[in-house]
Amino acid sequence: MTAPFPLVIHATHEAGVKVGGIGAVLDGLLGADAYNAAVTRSVLVGPLDGRDGVQMERLNSPRNRLTIRYSSLHGIFDGVEPALAAALQGIEQSYQIALLYGSRRFGGYEHEVVLVDATNPASGPVNEFRFHVWQHYGIDSSRYAYAAEMNLYFSIAQPLFASLKAIGVDVGLSQDERFIVAHEWLGMPVVFAAQMNEPGAWRTIFYAHEMATARLLVESHGGHDTRFYNALFRANDAGQSLDDVFGNHDFFFKHAIIRQAARCDNIFAVGDLVVPELRFLGGEFAHKNIDLVYNGVTVHPVSLSEKLASRRLLQDYCQNLLGYRPDYIFSHVTRMVLSKGMWRDIRVMEHLDRMLREANKTAVLFVLSTSQPAGRRSEWVHAWESQYGWPVGHRSDNGDLIDAEVNFFFNGVDPFNRRARDSRIVLINQFGWDRQSCGQRMPAGMSFMDLRRGSDVEFGQSVYEPFGIAQVEPLNFGAISCVSNVCGCVGFVNRVARTLAAEEGSTFDPNDNPNLVVADYVSLPDSYPVYSPQDALSIDQPTRDWIEGMNSGDTAWRIFRRLPQDEAGMARLMESGEALAKGMSWDVVVRDYFVPGLERARVTQAVSLRTPAAS
Questions:
Q1: CA–CA separation, 258 and 273 (whole Å)
Q2: 103 has which bridge partners?
Q3: What are the tens digits of pLDDT across the range 153-170?
């Protein structure tokens, strides 16, 4: 049986190498059986920087599972037919760029990849493209000349599209059989290039993994999510747009590009709140079709004995570091960025410490997060371990703590550890989670999966989180996921939990999910009335601190009463968590959300390109 979708192009900055969240989405999506049953051919297109040694090392690593068929940067030309090699070389000469063509494996499947290195592109074609974008989309590139990121993606768009034509992706296909999926604003220039070169010949989709202007507004003000979402909800009631409430944001180049995503045939949003965030843009977004396409979870069946074995390794690690074996293991695996709201972990831990003391229990929170994803040299880490007890102790004058890590440790973790009696927080600012990467006190044989399997609670109380894959990954292993109510994963978890409850003939209560605790730092008490979006703008950091102070105690109590008291309790959490994870698998996402979204793009009429959209 022929797959219903012959061709899907994924335009993304993580086409060549997994860097972050979108890379995790691509791993799950393109490796899913359901996706590969529905899509005949997939090609990932994006940038490449041959000058970046770290990026090239990761690109060429066997772990990246990349097979190069053609690359002028690598001197590989014989992996393709001579005619194709000549065509790719012609594109390189015309645009003064370098090309890489090959394939990457995602799970058990292999998909094509086209990457462009536009270190010093020919100015003529780039300027012609920018003029077209200004003429048809109203985006004035000269206004954003300072934005190196935007310049890069405008420079690679035309050669990427030319390369797709060279490898013959669309031969014999109609408009309804070929799709370009723009992952975030970074993929939109490829959509512009397709619409410029072949108007009306492609179906296009904007895949919103976030709403960049919403992130900017949340992160740039001390009121964070408490302020922004109260303003958004009141604005929705009043029929006001983002510009009405927060002022014109066309100065922000991502905002200007995202506004043109309404030109696509369909829009995907990874979380429930991303939908109103996009509608908040006003204009065409007010009535544009937006499909929820949640992120998925990779299901790893695990036995109770395997969970207990991982738990013992984590207890051994705590014993080696802190001198006690904790009754409970907490974790937070995340990037060290403001949006993750990591100070909220400490607020909740302050309440949990008192509850643990009253119950004669102990706990440890392992925070695996770093401002340097590439990692520190292992010999440095081993030296710090012997010199001052890393990762319990840290310094900021020797390359150990950098950037946001400094404030988080010295103004958060260290003061907490000095006050707490029955729990501690350990900041491991080094990815790897093995003895070589993290020091001799980490038990031999420890791996990252032990942290996932052995944890009782995974924190993730972000101030901005369109979905939150990392927060719900441990559900599969019976962990309790503690997230803020702005995390997009909450909607997916509740949908699955509601379905499971209906199948069992029971009543669904979103506040009584044994595997999920939702911290609410947005809802305001009656004593703080907010009647309009303008009222919400008065919410500042002291107000948010006050809300967090009140609600973190309730969050801690709900975590504490869900903690397993014995192995039978662990087994019950594992059973319910695995059921949730299966209902959130990537195959489910593809079947119930992604494929129907593609189908809707076939029947949706995109906005005409005859006149520029309002910017």
A1: 16
A2: 67, 112
A3: 999 999 999 999 999 998
